[in-house]
Amino acid sequence: MNKIKAFLKRKDIEISLKRYGIDALGAMAQGLFCSLLIGTILNTLGSQFHIGILTAAVVTINETDYTIGAMAIAMSGPAMAVAIGHALKCPPLALFSLITVGFAANALGGAGGPLAVLFVSIFAAEAGKAISKETKIDILVTPLVTIGVGVALAAWWAPGLGAAAMKVGNLIMWATDLQPFWMGIVVSVLVGAALTLPISSAAICAAFGLTGLAGGAALAGCCAQMIGFAVISFRENRWGGLISQGIGTSMLQMGNIVRNPRVWIAPLLTSAITGPIATCLFKLKMNGPPVSSGMGTCGLVGQIGVYTGWVNDVSAGLKAAVTAWDWAGLLLISFILPAVICPLIHLVLRRLGWVKDGDLKLQ
Predict the structure, then answer these.
(1) pTM of the model as a whole
(2) Are residues 198 and 286 in the same domain?
(3) Which of 37, 104, 186, 260 has its CA 20 to 30 A from that of 280?
(4) Nearest to 195 by CA among 171, 173, 219, 176
């Protein structure tokens, strides 16, 4: 047992919730952002503003035309796998080999591909790390082991993981359609909390394919956290804090939450309020990429995702047009309501003495 522990330590293989549930999951979201999300944004910009370089086919493969955005989207599996490998501190040969592993897991996982990529890439990365530099022909052995383990597990696990993820996602979406008020609260609070915690709400939404009303509730929860924290901490952090939290991440407040958990009450209650407003009043749906549901106002990706969904629905004949009510709902849920509701709740907490000056100061 001591030899095994020494070997794992030497190889920097840390079997822990932090390494796999926080570091790897967070990195996977970054990989998704740099491929799927960026590709979707480029395609949307090209089609809406008629930008030739973004709508023109760059290459044709098997009679399928690929724009710049489409190529970025096609590489989402490899991007996620490499990001995960980087978070797990893979040596170069193992890291680069994960490109193939990510492609295989994402393709075989279908709509639930991101979850398959997460699990398969973790095992393949650790196998590659374990064998790295253990032989004199490392340049052959490490890629063979990494790719071999990864592709074998992808063939074995990915279809099942992908199907399971989609079933869970479909169940959540079905429940939200059936009970938009209560599920609006549940989804909004849970996904919003995940955004602020050191895990990835975007990766969770992508893994379960959360779209539709459930995606709208998730977006509401994330916006409540980001805009809420940005506004209630303005007196301590001024404009830098407003921008870094409002279009960056509310995760910056995690240290303050640990020191005084009561500072989180206002954003959480705001999530519980705006979630059902989004689902019941505005019928806000995220019909863009599922990963956008968990992005909130980060780089305005959530709002771009909703708009992308509108455009796609109009093109498919599922929606007559984008209305003023649609825009009002998106603006109110994303920015206005969190900026009004959260400070009001926070004011009550300050009057109760639960939150004091400096509690929300970013270090």
Answers:
(1) 0.81
(2) yes
(3) 37
(4) 219
